[in-house]
Amino acid sequence: MNNILSRMARIYGVLRRPHRVYVVPLFLAVLFGLLRTVVAFWMALDHLFFPRLKRTRANRPIVLVGNPRTGTTFLQRFLSDEGFGSGMELFLMLYPSLVLQRILRPVLPLLEKLSPAKFHSTAAHETSLGSVETDDVGMLFRYLDGFFLYGFFLSFEQEDPYPLFDPRVRDTSARDFAWLDKLWRRSLVLHKADRNVAKLFSLAVRLPQFQQRFPEAQILYMARDPLAVIPSSMSLVTGVLDRAFGFWSQPEAIRKRWLERMYRAFIMLLERFHEEWQSGAIDRSRVFIVRYDRMMLDFETVMQEMCAFLGHEMTPKLRATVQKRADKQRKYESEHKYDLEQFGLNEQQIRDDCKFFYDAFLPPWQPESAARPAVAAAAAG
Predict the structure, then answer these.
(1) DSSP of 255-305, one letter per residue?
(2) Disulfide check for 138: which of 41, 93, 260, 337 has CB 3.0–4.6 Å away?
(3) 219: which strand partners?
(4) Is 93 strand, coil or helix?
(5) DSSP readout, 213-230?
(6) Given 3-state DSSP classes, what are the helix, strand and coil percentages for the chain, each rounded to the nearest 5?
(7) One-character DSSP codes across 156-216
(8) How many Cβ atoms from other residues are within 10 Å of residue 22's Cβ?
(9) 4-297+333-364 has which fold?
(10) 271-291 average pLDDT score
(11) Angle between helices 316-329 and 299-310 (to 10 degrees)
């Protein structure tokens, strides 16, 4: 796991055994090596053609942290669209060189046909090469490492390799944050922005390290009911795996082992953040907790508080946009459907395993819009 060739060999082992894919991965390995070489060459030329890059600093990012399916994609794209900062498109993470991007942009529709984004269900997660996406993908494209590597590939191995992705066992923070800095500075130059709006679910297990590397970063931690988050996440990942490799046609033993591992991994993301939050390892003054239920039912108040936290002006134009979006949020119904039993789960199991998270971040809450009539009635009485 300490070098990219060993990780490529392990990926091939998974593709060859459980998924019975033999030849295509060899061509993809050559393509990946070629892409890395080409990207490195053009990134070296970026400083020549974009002198602003040398002066640009990505030291004040707004970073969304939280498990997948907690509303991170919506909020990242909303903040990016409304001028809080620049989010990174999948295209930028795959081809990080600013010069190379200009060369390839005319053929983007053709590259879209080869994009891994095509395996996503639009009902679960709509994406494309031109979509703002999670920055964790940048580490996968660069190093073939991280939680995406575990979830989509190495979690199928006979022996569970999860400890190798635990920062307490193998910490790749210095490597990953250095690469993120390069990507973020290029994103700022490309979008002519002064702040990044990033999304990194992997920071849930290493937020103290990140805060030390980026002391001016502001964190938006997304908290949603695990009863919705965990099965929705498993549905999203199995959907991709099924389109790519026929996950649901795998032997039951393989499916059961994978589902159990992913369930533990999703809970671990919650546990580690909770532990470091409670212990004081996380600087709470730089973290704003965003409850999913509040964001959906009382978006106006959440955005007012968030603007104050981020030091971003709530202009009349932004207020009108927020109000329009809030009305839409309250009527929203997801088209993404899933069944707990399909993943070997039940409601009580999730509630028991995640009690610590409910107690700390999801205490009973009532929307202000629902509370106001009660207050008025009490006053009248």
Answers:
(1) HHHHHHHHHHHHHHHHHHHHHHHHHT-S-GGGEEEEEHHHHHH-HHHHHHH
(2) 93
(3) 63, 287
(4) helix
(5) HSTT-EEEEEE--HHHHH
(6) 65, 5, 30
(7) GSSS--GGGG-TTTS--HHHHHHHHHHHHHHHHHHHT-SSBEEE-GGGGGTHHHHHHHSTT
(8) 10
(9) Rossmann fold (3.40.50)
(10) 98
(11) 140
Provide the 10 A C-beta neighbour count for residue 189: 19
pTM (whole model) above 0.85: yes
- Would you say 75 and 230 are in contact if contact means Cβ atoms under 8 Å apart? no
**What one-letter code names the amino acid at 335?**
E
pLDDT value at position 109? Answer: 79
Q: Which helix (H) or strand (E) holds 72?
A: helix 72-81
Domain ranges of the chain: 4-297+333-364
Q: Residues 45-61: pLDDT tens digits?
A: 999 999 999 999 999 99
Is there a contact between 256 and 238 (Cβ–Cβ < 8 Å)? no
Q: What's the token pair of residue 18?
A: 């459980």
Mean pLDDT of 152-167: 95
Asked if 191 contacts 86 with a C-beta cutoff of 8 angstroms, the reply is: yes
Distance of alpha carbon 176 from alpha carbon 44, whole angstroms: 19
DSSP secondary-structure letter at 64? E
Q: Which residues contact 60 (CB under 8 A, 6 or more apart)?
A: 194, 195, 196, 216, 217, 218
Phi, psi torsion values for 352, nearest 5 degrees: -70, -45
In terms of Cα–Cα distance, which of 190, 182, 5, 197 is closest to 82?
Answer: 197
User: How many CA atoms, within 13 angstroms, populate the side-chain half-sphere of residue 248?
Assistant: 10
Instruction: State how far the Cα of 202 lies from the Cα of 139, in Å rounded to an integer.
Output: 10
For residues 309-330, give the mean pLDDT. 95
Q: Is the pLDDT of residue 292 over 90?
A: yes
292 in Cβ contact with 361 (< 8 Å): no
Q: How far apart are CA 165 and CA 150, in angstroms?
A: 8
∠ CA 5-6-9, nearest 5°, is: 90
pLDDT of 369: 54
- The structure tokens listed for 128 are 């494309």
Assess contact for 97 and 39: CB atoms under 8 A. Answer: yes
Tens-digit pLDDT profile for residues 83-100: 999 999 999 999 999 999
CA 58 to chain centre: 19
Residue 122 has pLDDT above 70, yes or no: no
